[in-house]
Amino acid sequence: MSLDVKHYLGIYKTRLEMQNSGITNPTNEIKKLTRTIVEKLSLLPLEEKIELENGKMIDSKGNVIITFPRN
User: What is the C-alpha separation between 64 and 56, in angstroms, rounded?
Assistant: First the structure.
């Protein structure tokens, strides 16, 4: 399924806000991953299509934005 940067950025910004305010408290690895996703998605056009495939978030040009941990 292909959704856009706007969709995922909204989700991960909300997660980051929840982590920063202490509503959720995931591991430091997940906190860093969330920050990295927000930083990288913030640089892309909001209408850019994003694919989730094989544990990776990929833009429409095939560039890997992030690789999700397997644990």
Answer: 7
Number of neighbouring beta carbons within 10 Å of residue 37: 21
DSSP state for residue 57 in the 8-state scheme: E
What is the H or E stretch that residue 34 is in? helix 28-41
Residue type, 19: Q
* C-alpha neighbours within 13 Å on the C-beta side of residue 45: 5
pTM score:
0.90
> 62 pLDDT exceeds 90?
yes
* DSSP 8-state secondary structure symbol assigned to residue 66: E
